[in-house]
Amino acid sequence: MTQATVPSSTLVGVDAIDVEVQVDVSAGLPAFTIVGLGDTAVLEARDRVRAALRSSGFDFPNARVTVNLAPSPVRKHGTGFDLPIAVGVLAATGQVPRDVLAAVSVGELGLDGSVRSVPGMLAHAIAAPLRGLPLLASVDALMAAQTVKECVVHPLGSLGVLRQGLPPASARMAAAPPADIPVPDFSEVHGQSLAKRALEIAAAGGLGLLLVGPPGSAKTMLARRLPSILPPLDDAEVLTTAVVHSVAGLDLNGVLAGIRPFRAPHHTATTAGLVGGGTPPRPGEASLAHNGVLFLDELPEFSPAALQALRQPLEDGYLTLVRAEGRVRYPASFALVAAMNPCPCGYLGDTERTCTCPPTLVERYVGRVGGPLMDRIDMTLRVGRTDTSRLLTGSVEERSAAVRARVIDARGRTRKRGLPRDLSGAALLRGCGLDPAARAAVEQAARLHHLSGRGITRLLRVALAIADLAAADRVTREHVFEASGYRGNS
User: Fold this and answer.
1) CA 296, CA 293: separation in Å to the nearest integer?
2) How do residues 373-391 score in pLDDT, each as one tens digit?
3) Cα–Cα dist 120/347, whole Å
4) Looking at the domain assignment, is residue 228 inside a domain?
5) Do 213 and 303 lie in a common domain?
6) Could you tell me where the beta strands, DSSP code E, fall in 192-237?
7) Burial 17-28, CB ≥16 within 10 A → b, else e
8) Are 221 and 369 contained in the same domain?
9) Number of folded domains in the chain?
């Protein structure tokens, strides 16, 4: 037999799409052709496969070798087709048993015949059981693949092992202990009790927060300590978050240990870098912050186009990129935390230094953020200078562990209410259980801050988070008043 078909897959967004690698070895002038809409990395597999087979002691056929990647209309990319192409050639020429064709093969080959993992191994591990097949991949992909309980993995260190057929399935390893990753603590921030309270509310409700203040007012320091008070990822969140990081080729240790992502891109980030894109498409910072926090320092310095691209994920929890090649969807449910100065010089409204910016410059600077994006940020807080005496006396501040315990209790109360995560409309009103006094307070805040329908929804979400922190059964007038204080403070 001179033909073989090897199951494999390619990434589209964060999903692995089924691909069949069809290999035909026939008489004719020696040639090695790959068809099926593969990119440059796929076409370069010809040289890697030829060298890897010879280094492993196999014979590369002195014949016409044609490889078809089906279905042809789907664009294939990456080096993950090296292994299935090599397996197909070996099986078609009878150099290995044909049981090697009974597994989804994904991996890159070294010139010495070694097998390496590729980005997105977790997505491939999720797709393999859906086809009723095990996964044949590199040894270093084993830990990521084992997070999918339904996936059976046959680890392969080098091509030479295939002489004895499909290698034995790996026994499932015990979960590694949580990674000891140092996280900055709240106790390192002196003063700023109101800002700490706002961060606690944001953590309890998964809400967005904008900190506005002069240089040196600890805005960035506060924001970078938000991960220390967030609850760990649950099992479902670990898997969905790890898939995005796996596709991006990032280390998974932190996510697998339950640590929520905290992404802080520089303000020179492009639109594609922030929301995803490129050829082939890759997830951006917004998707890498899925189930975590996206921190934008110096908010007005970001490109206006990049900032406005965040409007859809803030509303929907996902990103849809439409390109000539098709549509790609990335998960992007994150809490947006941002920091900015009130003006270009940074001292507008400061008690100790005078602002030197003309009003038109201030208006243009703040306008770079845009009203629609501001309307999607749940809380805004003006941060002032920290009292110098508190910095020098070394006062004892509350540690993150205590705050985190309150946040976990509050989120537990939210779950007991049986409410969906993205509350809105009638479900939000039922969850809040507003009495006449609280409803009147909401109407008053809406008039005072000129809130849109979206703004009222976000006001109620903040009030509900405050009520959960206070272990209250319903949102009261006092909770609405506190939530109203975080609107229009910029």
Assistant:
1) 10
2) 999 999 999 999 877 766 6
3) 46
4) yes
5) yes
6) 209-212
7) ebbbbbbbbeee
8) yes
9) 2
Which SS3 state, helix, strand or coil, does residue 200 take? Answer: helix
15 within some domain? yes
Given 392, 418, 443, which residue is the final one in a domain? 392
Nearest to 14 by CA among 292, 310, 242, 237: 242
Do 252 and 120 sit in the same domain of this protein? no
Query: What is each CA distance from 92 to 21, 25, 54, 126, in whole angstroms?
Result: 12, 7, 16, 28
Give the residue among 19, 175, 214 at the shortest CA–CA distance from 106. 19
Parent domain of 136: 3-164
Cβ(300)–Cβ(340) under 8 Å? Answer: yes
List Cβ neighbours of 40 (8 Å cut-off, separation of 6 or more). none
Model confidence pLDDT, tens digit, residues 135-176: 999 998 887 788 888 999 999 999 999 999 999 998 766 555
The token pair that represents 263 in the structure block:
């992404």
Q: What is the pLDDT of residues 29-41, one digit of tens each?
A: 999 999 999 999 9
433: left (phi over 0), alpha (psi -120 to 50) or beta: left
Q: What is the DSSP string of 420-455?
A: -SS--HHHHHHHHT--HHHHHHHHHHHHHHT--HHH
On whether residue 26 sits in a domain, the answer given is yes
The Cα–Cα gap between 115 and 142 comes to 12
Q: What is the pLDDT of residue 396?
A: 79
Residues 273 and 362 in one domain: yes
Find how far residue 182's CA is from the centre of its chain: 20
Q: How far apart are the C-alpha atoms of 146 and 169, rounded to whole Å? A: 11
pTM of the complete model: 0.91
CA distance 117 to 145: 11
Q: Which tokens belong to 402?
A: 């205590």
3-class DSSP assignment, residue 209: strand
The C-alpha atoms of residue 191 and residue 390 are separated, in whole angstroms, by 7
Please give the C-alpha separations between residue 241 and each of 55, 235, 250, 309, in angstroms, as whole numbers: 38, 10, 11, 21
Where among 392, 416, 438 does a domain terminate?
392
Letter for the amino acid at 363?
E
Work out the end-to-end distance of the chain between its first and last CA atoms, rounded to an integer number of angstroms: 73
Listed in sequence order, the residues at least 6 apart from 56 whose beta carbon sits closer than 8 Å to its beta carbon are 113, 158, 159, 160
The answer to whether the CB of 34 falls within 8 A of the CB of 19 is no
State the CATH number of the domain containing residue 147. 3.30.230.10
DSSP designation for 101: G
Indicate if 160 and 207 belong to the same structural domain: no
**Burial classification of residue 183, based on how many CB atoms lie within 10 Å of its CB (0-12 exposed, 13-18 middle, 19 or more buried):** middle
